[in-house]
Amino acid sequence: xxxxxxxxxxxxxxxxxxxxxxxxxxxxxxxxxxxxxxxxxxxxxxxxxxxxxxxxxxxxxxxxxxxxxxxxxxxxxxxxxxxxxxxxxxxxxxxxxxxxxxxxxxxxxxxxxxxxxxxxxxxxxxxxxxxxxxxxxxxxxxxxxxxxxxxxxxxxxxxxxxxxxxxxxxxxxxxxxxxxxxxx
Length: 184
Fold this sequence. Notes:
This protein is of the alpha/beta class. The chain has a single domain, classed as Rossmann fold (3-Layer(aba) Sandwich). It has five helices and eight strands. The strands form two sheets. A five-stranded parallel sheet has the order 3-2-4-5-6, with helices on both faces.
């Protein structure tokens, strides 16, 4: 668990607001996908994986069938490894082909856009989907280094570079919500 003693933490989304946002995002996906059986949710490590699992459950409740999900690891496709470093992340796990699938890349936060660019590059090694869309819980505006924008987002927040956003999910963290943290 992270030591939060040197950080000021402000709640952006409560547990209830997070649940409502997830339901809205699931509905938006369904509104923009032609066939719910062709959806493939691919989580980007680390929190994107768990977020994809939660979204899959939300969508399954709405459509009455399983929604396939997996993991896309962008680590070795990054152009900024020297800045962010490597970490042990779950390896790419795509159980079926991408051909004809409507892929939704799922991440907790978009900041510079470099992680998403790397995830798209990693995805190309696995095939050619019908479409690729991006869903993030938080779109941190004002810091994009690449022309990448989410198709779906829970909240759009203007932040400082010294701040960070943290998505917390019950299964992992024992609490739910989205928090903005300022290092003091």
